[in-house]
Amino acid sequence: GENLWKAIHQLKGDVICYVDADISNIHPRFVYGLVAPLIHREEIHYVKAFYDRPLNYSSGLRSTGGGRVTEILIRPLFSLFYPELTNVIQPLSGEYAARREVLEIIPFPIGYGVETSHLLDLYEKFGLDAFAQTDLDRRVHRNQTTNALGKMSFGILQTFFNRLHAQGKIDQMPDMETFYRRFEVEDGVYNQLVQEVVEEERPPMIEIEEYLSRAVSP
Q1: N or C end of the chain: smaller count of CB under 10 Å?
Q2: 169 φ, ψ to 5°?
Q3: What are the pLDDT tens digits along the chain (218 aa)?
């Protein structure tokens, strides 16, 4: 999230495209497929990729699967609170493009919640019609462990509850812990591991004085 936010300041174009760096089947369509809808449709503000996400096992790729946090966490949450956003096929996709003018007005979590916050914030501001989706066929990358996905989900939940409160979906913000707890077994002994996960946010870039100064300089 930190680098995604800083990119708005560093880049000069009116359209910004983000692509994850660990894709093993990378292809030019991962860029032009995301940028094209923004060029041809002025009412579109944000384009999200979708694709088949095979799981990479030692025996080879399994054609179905992937997107485990999406299926176990994000889809149920969207179904409960934002049913229209269930139309987004890959809500946690790291490949997307957007107009600078919309990215610069939203805050950026610098942890795991950045993709979720983008959808929630832009949906609140512009509605579902501002979104488009592009079929990029297939995405192969290094799959994370279940333990890593648990930590990711914990961070996403923090961002999600913050947005629920800010957007009036819940009246009172619950007291939330920032320590993620899980168990690990070694030699038949179960030990609890505790790790702090804090979802910090950067303000909208439009509020940064240096960014505004650059925008108005000759």
Answers
A1: C
A2: -75, -30
A3: 899 999 999 999 999 999 988 888 899 999 999 999 999 999 999 999 999 887 765 555 666 555 889 999 999 999 999 999 999 999 999 999 999 999 999 999 999 999 999 999 999 999 999 999 999 988 887 778 889 999 999 999 999 999 999 999 999 888 899 999 999 999 999 999 999 999 999 999 999 999 998 765 55
User: pTM of the predicted model, to two decimals?
Assistant: 0.90
Give the Cβ contact number of residue 29 at 10 Å: 14
How many domains is the chain partitioned into structurally?
1
Please give the structure tokens belonging to residue 186. Answer: 């070694």
CATH number at residue 89: 3.90.550.10
Token pair recorded at residue 59: 């025996």
How is residue 170 annotated by DSSP?
S
171 vs 35: CA distance, rounded Å: 38
- Residue 53 and residue 161: Cα distance in Å, rounded? 27
DSSP-derived 3-state class of residue 52: strand
